[in-house]
Design brief:
The protein is mostly helical and 506 residues long. Helices cover 64% and strands 5% of the residues. The chain has 23 helices and 5 strands. Helix 7 packs antiparallel against helix 8, helix 8 crosses helix 10 (209-236) and helix 13 packs parallel to helix 15 (328-345). The longest helix is centred in the middle third of the chain and has 28 residues, at 209-236. The N and C termini lie far apart (70 Å).
Length: 506
């Protein structure tokens, strides 16, 4: 693929011990802090709910999606949900257990990329290797996936696996692995399948026959087989039409809602304006200019391939639908890997440049790393008390009975779902029928949201309980986003004549 292989990094027992220790420490720190990095949010409840329900014995169903009947088989791409179910069978259900799946997937993906670079001699200098490690384990784009509860962590793992298969010396493993990655991309999400398709087109243009038989064709076959298999599964379960309607509805809402709210660059291309992605792309562009001036920028080199895949395909995704901030890993990974591999090959050239020029390559990457893990860990420690979830669980158990029929905002999902048999969450409120709304007798959520939910569901309600968690300077000064709010919840009970509720006994 136009990559010159150097002598390689010397790797022995000492390096293995140090690397294993560093990885174990990284996993441990993130597992300890992952519940404080962000509050449970709507997408998290939506994507994990089918797997959680299957684990709890309710079937592969969900009551969190618009357009998804709560009593029908989950009409969606099910790979992540099946992983959640299998993970919970081992660890049990909790906020930490669910989010630990994302932590393990993202960190092991970074290890796989680094191991591939060492084994295939794509990176032969320790400086390049450590720079890539910093981007893989500390960038803001990948930290977003550690506690998101979305299938994007699986997307990171599939990209890392494809990278490893592409440079594996055994031909049969290249072909078989590429087929499996294409197949699973469809079962992970349409956005990943779309990204994979256009990446293959671009890479075919850049590298031609070098990758046609071992990567491109197997991947296309995997994508096609995955699409047919997904259709057969959902059609067998009688929910194919629901799936198609959901995809159409989500696409329509993304565009119309965006236009109605005056969405611009941040909304449609949020994954590309992520500060970490911008800084990595900036370094890649600076290196491209340096190499172009020396006539060393060749067609099909790793840097150009990374920029093409990491910039052009996301731009296309944003133009066709949206490329939100939680897709930013699709831009970061190709550019970061391409940059570090090319930097390694051109190390002597870069060092021969004036000091301010090669420093201009590295400084944006250091800032990109500082905006990720250190910032997330800092605010997680700040929110150690304000984001403790056990008080929320205790509040729900004291305020709600298992036989209640509850509508809850996603922030209370982990407290409500295992305790209440019948519960609806998040966006499902816009899909509920009038009879279903009349059966709901308890609302849970932040005060403003709960009040709006009561208006949408209809009827007469009264507030019966309130939980106001600890506050600090962050909760008081940062009202929105990942780093600010703590927990403030209220419980409303229905007081309509059409549903009487006996008094709760202590």
């Amino acid at each position: 693929m136009g990559i010159e292989r150097g002598p390689g990094i010397q790797w022995g027992r000492k390096q293995t011990v140090l690397a294993a220790t560093a990885i174990a420490a990284l996993v441990a720190v993130n597992l300890v802090l992952v519940t404080r990095m962000s509050r449970p949010w709507p997408d998290e409840a939506m994507y994990i709910d089918p797997g959680v329900n299957l684990y709890l014995g309710h079937g592969f169903v969900t009551s969190t999606y618009v357009g998804q009947p709560a009593d029908r088989f989950f009409a969606g791409t099910p790979f992540y949900q099946v992983l959640v179910f299998a993970w919970l069978k081992v660890l049990g259900f909790s906020l930490t257990a669910v989010r630990s799946l994302d932590v393990v997937l993202v960190i092991l993906s970074g290890v796989l990329v680094l191991a591939t670079c060492i084994r295939a001699k794509l990176v032969t200098h320790w400086s390049s290797l450590l720079l890539l490690a910093m981007l893989l384990f500390s960038s803001h784009s990948l930290m977003l996936n550690l506690g998101s509860g979305r299938p994007d962590a699986v997307g990171v793992a599939l990209l890392a696996a494809q990278f490893a298969f592409a440079f594996h010396p055994r031909r049969w493993l290249k072909i078989g692995g590429s087929f499996v990655v294409g197949f699973l991309a469809v079962f992970t999400g349409l956005q990943l399948a779309f990204f994979a398709f256009w990446c293959l087109v671009l890479l075919l243009v850049l590298f031609g026959r070098q990758i046609l038989k071992t990567i491109v064709i197997p991947n296309f076959l995997g994508l096609g087989t995955g699409a047919v298999s997904l259709y057969l599964l959902l059609n067998w379960k009688g929910v194919w039409e629901i799936y198609v309607a959901k995809v159409a509805l989500n696409s329509y809402q993304s565009r119309i809602t965006g236009l109605g709210r005056g969405w611009g660059l941040k909304q449609y291309f949020g994954g590309l304006v992520d500060p970490g992605v911008i800084l990595v792309i900036l370094s890649a562009v600076i290196l491209s200019v340096m190499l172009y001036r020396r006539n060393r920028l060749k067609r099909g080199n790793p840097l150009l391939a990374g920029l093409a895949v990491g910039v052009l395909v996301p731009l296309l995704m944003g133009k066709v639908a949206v490329f939100p901030y939680y897709y930013s890993y699709l831009a970061l990974l190709p550019v970061a890997i391409g940059f570090c591999v090319e930097l390694d090959q051109q190390w002597e050239v870069v060092q021969s440049e004036p000091r301010w020029q090669w420093r201009s390559l590295i400084l944006p990457l250091i800032f990109a790393g500082l905006l990720g893990a250190p910032l997330s860990w800092f605010f997680a420690v700040v929110h150690w008390n304000t984001r403790a979830y056990q008080p929320v669980e205790e509040f729900v158990r004291q305020s709600v009975r298992p036989d209640d029929i509850v509508y809850s905002e996603a922030v209370a999902y982990y407290a409500v779902r295992p305790f209440v048999k019948t519960a609806y969450f998040g966006e499902y409120i816009h899909y509920m029928s009038v009879p279903d709304k009349r059966t709901v007798n308890v609302l849970i959520g932040p005060p403003k949201d709960a009040k709006e939910d009561a208006h949408v569901i209809g009827g007469q309600w009264r507030q019966t309980a309130e939980y106001r968690g600890p506050t600090n300077w962050a909760t008081e000064s940062i009202k929105h986003g990942t780093y600010g709010p703590g927990y403030h919840l209220v419980v409303y009970e229905r007081v309509d004549a059409n549903r009487t509720r006996p008094a709760r006994t202590p």
